[in-house]
């Protein structure tokens, strides 16, 4: 029997029987102890199957005294009335409402100075005397205030069982009572055998925790559960927080595709677990953001935790966060959604997913080619060309070159010509400018087209920019381009500039005078620039003075 079923069975037995006893249900925080108790209680209450008719639920969180504890039991007292229509049900229901109203009135009086003090001193024993023959649920023993000891709590539970014929259940996390030698832990151990009749440990497996957390959920519970089980997430509070993250993103992206929704859940289950389940010692959001490649690049020995985290991420199939994952990490880390940012990232991701589908469809077109030794060349070629044309938009220059190589190898020159013609007609300008990081050769049939398209795509020549760049970088291609311009172009540029720009272009043109072993192209640039300057200097004595200031003689070389 699973832990969840065992706990539910024991709770049912406890609630159905009327004999006084003390039950202890212990387990880690967030595993659903209170939830299981309450749902089982509500179910049996509706069916009128609870052995006693009065009930108090008390959380000890922050309670600092035994008197406060006693008062809380009375304050939370209620009659167990099912949702029925029988006369007895209605009578008990009216009685319960009247009782709750009387407690509110007492609470209001207690809030009045002096009256409240007197009422507290005189009436506290009287109120507590009403507690008998009932069920008392005591939650959060480990989070009680400093003024309330474990010994006092256990003592009262024992008193309620022996003197008041009550049934008491403790819901607690025993491990959080403190170190084994702490006063609280020692008192728990000392009084446990004397007070507790039955103890059960609630430790649901991940699938049980998910079933509890997502019962009645409408936010893809099956998929969230699937990924949560992969990470062995057992904390129900963490699972509910993850569900909330998913809902926020779903609401922000109502038009998200099924594939993107799957990625949202896959990523958010991991990120939510990292953010909220500190007890499981998960990898940090920063560690997840870095990805495997960055961690390997750091070239240092991994810690045992990092080795464990990498094994978890590998098993979860999450190694390299993409741009959309990074946007989700930012959301989880900050706890605030930047809708504009997440929408933009989602739009880009949808396009990538679409391209990925097309790429897969293109690869599928080659299935027949590699699928056996059948005599089906016509069918193979039809599938390949169909896949090529249908998915051309996601192909790059190397992909088409590789296809042409395959057609060459299977001796299909006409189909190769068709591929080239289709590419020439369909490809965008960016296709021809693809910069292959692997430097793969372009197929012979495409190479002339590539060169022609790249020339068409080249920006119009900019003489001034070429001149300045050549004077700074000494780049041979830039120098050669400048040397090819006529003297008139130099003259036109010099006359059209003034101030700092004027000095920049003239000095750039004369830069190569400094080079002792200047190339022929460099000497050509200097010669054309000096000729242009002399022609400008001849227009007036003022301009002649300006030209000579640059070290250019008004007399051409070889003349006196």
- The percentage helix is 55-70%
| Mean pLDDT metric | 88
Give me the count of strands.
Answer: 6
Shape summary: elongated
Distance between the termini: 115 Å
Mind summarizing the main beta sheet? 6 strands, mixed
Strand order of the largest sheet: 3-2-4-5-1-6
Proportion of beta-strand residues: 5-15%
Radius of gyration: 41 Å
SS element count, helices? 26
Judged by helices, strands and strand pairing, the structural class is: mainly alpha
Q: Unreliable stretches, pLDDT < 50, 5 or more residues?
A: 83-96, 105-122
Fill in the keyword field for this structure.
mainly alpha; single chain; 61% helix; 26 helices; 560 residues; six-stranded mixed β-sheet; elongated; 6 strands
Description:
- The chain has helices at about 5-15, 35-45, 65-75, 85-110, 115-130, 150-165, 185-195, 205-215, 220-230, 235-250, 260-275, 285-295, 305-315, 325-335, 340-365, 375-390, 395-410, 415-425, 430, 445-455, 465-475, 475-485, 485-495, 500-510, 520-535, 540-550, and strands spanning about 20-25, 55-60, 75-80, 135-140, 165-170, 200.
- It has a six-stranded mixed beta sheet, sandwiched between helices.
- The protein is built from 26 helices and six strands.
- The longest helix has 26 residues, at about 340-365.
- Strand 4, helix 6 and strand 5 form a beta-alpha-beta unit.
- It is about 60% helix and about 5% strand.
- The protein is elongated.
- With about 550 residues, it is mostly helical.
Q: How would you briefly describe this protein structure?
A:
With 560 residues, the protein is mainly alpha-helical. It has helices at residues 3-16, 33-46, 66-75, 87-110, 115-128, 150-164, 183-195, 206-213, 221-230, 236-252, 258-276, 285-297, 304-315, 323-334, 339-364, 377-390, 397-409, 413-426, 429-432, 447-457, 463-473, 476-483, 487-496, 499-509, 520-537, 541-549, and strands at 21-26, 54-59, 77-79, 135-139, 167-172, 198-201. Mean pLDDT is 88; it is low at 83-96 and 105-122.
């Amino acid at each position: 029997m699973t832990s969840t079923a065992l706990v539910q069975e024991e709770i049912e037995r406890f609630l159905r029987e009327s004999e006084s006893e003390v039950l202890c249900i212990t387990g880690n925080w967030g595993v659903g102890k209170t939830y299981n108790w309450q749902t089982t209680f509500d179910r049996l209450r509706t069916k009128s199957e609870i052995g006693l008719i009065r009930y108090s639920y008390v959380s000890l969180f922050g309670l600092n005294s035994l008197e406060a504890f006693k008062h809380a039991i009375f304050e939370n007292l209620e009659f167990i009335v099912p949702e029925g229509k029988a006369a007895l049900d209605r009578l008990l229901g009216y009685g319960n409402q009247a009782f709750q109203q009387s407690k509110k009135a007492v609470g209001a009086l207690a809030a009045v100075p002096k009256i409240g003090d007197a009422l507290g001193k005189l009436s506290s024993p009287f109120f507590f005397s009403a507690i008998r023959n009932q069920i008392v649920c005591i939650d959060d023993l480990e989070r009680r205030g400093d003024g309330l000891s474990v010994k006092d709590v256990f003592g009262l539970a024992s008193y309620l069982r022996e003197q008041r014929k009550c049934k008491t259940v403790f819901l607690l996390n025993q491990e959080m009572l403190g170190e084994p030698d702490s006063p609280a832990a020692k008192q728990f151990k000392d009084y446990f055998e004397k007070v507790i009749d039955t103890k059960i440990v609630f430790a649901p497996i991940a699938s049980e925790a998910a079933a509890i957390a997502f019962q009645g959920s409408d936010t893809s519970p099956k998929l969230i559960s699937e990924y949560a089980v992969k990470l062995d997430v057992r904390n129900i509070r963490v699972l509910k927080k993850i569900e909330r993250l998913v809902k926020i993103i779903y609401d922000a992206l109502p038009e998200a595709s099924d594939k993107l929704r799957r990625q949202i859940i896959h990523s958010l289950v991991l990120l939510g677990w990292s953010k909220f389940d500190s007890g499981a010692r998960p990898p940090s959001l920063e560690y997840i953001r870095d990805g495997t490649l960055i961690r390997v690049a750091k070239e240092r020995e991994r810690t045992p935790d990092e080795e464990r985290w990498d094994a978890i991420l590998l098993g979860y199939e999450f190694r390299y966060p993409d741009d959309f994952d990074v946007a989700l990490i930012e959301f989880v880390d900050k706890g605030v959604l930047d809708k504009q940012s997440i929408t933009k990232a989602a739009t880009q991701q949808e396009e990538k997913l679409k391209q990925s589908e097309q790429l897969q469809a293109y690869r599928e077109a080659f299935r027949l080619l590699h699928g056996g030794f059948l005599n089906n060349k016509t069918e193979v070629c039809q599938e390949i060309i169909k896949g090529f044309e249908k998915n051309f938009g996601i192909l790059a220059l190397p992909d088409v070159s590789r296809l042409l190589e395959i057609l060459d190898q299977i001796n299909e020159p006409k189909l190769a010509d068709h591929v080239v013609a289709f590419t020439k007609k369909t490809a965008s300008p960016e296709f021809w400018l693809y910069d292959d990081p692997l430097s793969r050769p372009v197929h012979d049939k495409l190479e002339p087209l590539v060169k022609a398209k790249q020339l068409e795509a080249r920006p119009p020549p900019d003489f001034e920019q070429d001149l300045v760049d050549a004077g700074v970088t000494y780049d041979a291609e830039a120098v050669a381009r400048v040397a090819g311009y006529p003297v008139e172009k130099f003259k036109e540029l010099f006359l059209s500039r003034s101030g700092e720009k004027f000095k920049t272009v003239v000095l750039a043109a004369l830069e190569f005078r400094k080079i002792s072993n200047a190339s022929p192209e460099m000497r050509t640039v200097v010669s054309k620039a000096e000729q242009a300057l002399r022609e400008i200097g001849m227009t007036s004595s003022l301009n002649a003075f300006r030209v000579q200031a640059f070290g250019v003689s008004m007399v051409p070389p070889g003349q006196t």
